[in-house]
Amino acid sequence: MRRAGRLVAEVLMMLRDKIKPGVTSLELDTIADTQCRKWKVKPAFKGYGGFPFTICASPNEQIVHGFPNTTPLVEGDILSIDFGLISEGFYGDHAITFPVGKVDDDTQRLLDVTRQSLQQGVDAAQPDGYLTDISHAVQSWVENAGFSVVREFVGHGIGRQLHEDPQIPNFGSPGAGPRLRPGMTLAIEPMVNVGKPGVIILDDGWTAVTVDGQRSAHFEHTVAITENGPEVLSRIDW
Ligand code: MG
Predict the structure, then answer these.
(1) Domain residue limits, the chain
(2) How many whole angstroms separate alpha carbon 15 and alpha carbon 22?
């Protein structure tokens, strides 16, 4: 799990270094796919439920599950990239919303609050705590900042499968759900909208967009619960 987590993080850092105005999300998809071949690991999303690409690339008002395409990125855009792979039979899953060039202050705040809400969720993933401690920590952080949490998609257990039990909603009261125990591995992934919390799925059957056209951000880590607390697996020391 540590290896899979490190490799997904390495790919997202590679993509981060490529993102700028004029680049297309399909080019980023190719970079991720090529790197998987080099490492002889398998991209986790390609073919999953029929998803046709290596990365999910969701710009601006797209929340998650966007298709990479040939539209050049524009200064001031944001691009959410979600990427998973399988290494030695174990999955890693990781997402970051990147700014394209310089973004406006409101957008930067959305990125900051969403990233911080993930950290709040990770900090709440304590051995002998409860699953919805994570949910509550994320929701409080987001709503205190005046944004809304997407409810249609949730985090999940992860290990030998991409999506395992339990589901991890990004909302709810603390102190419920299964107890958290050392050895559990979870994908915690808040999706945060500037405006209304709802979701529309486009005709491609995958792309989830906001109902009001306002922007959305998504950050995700694969996290192991240890006796000493949560350990983020999908982060490189840098
Ligand atoms: Mg996930």
Answers:
(1) 2-232
(2) 14
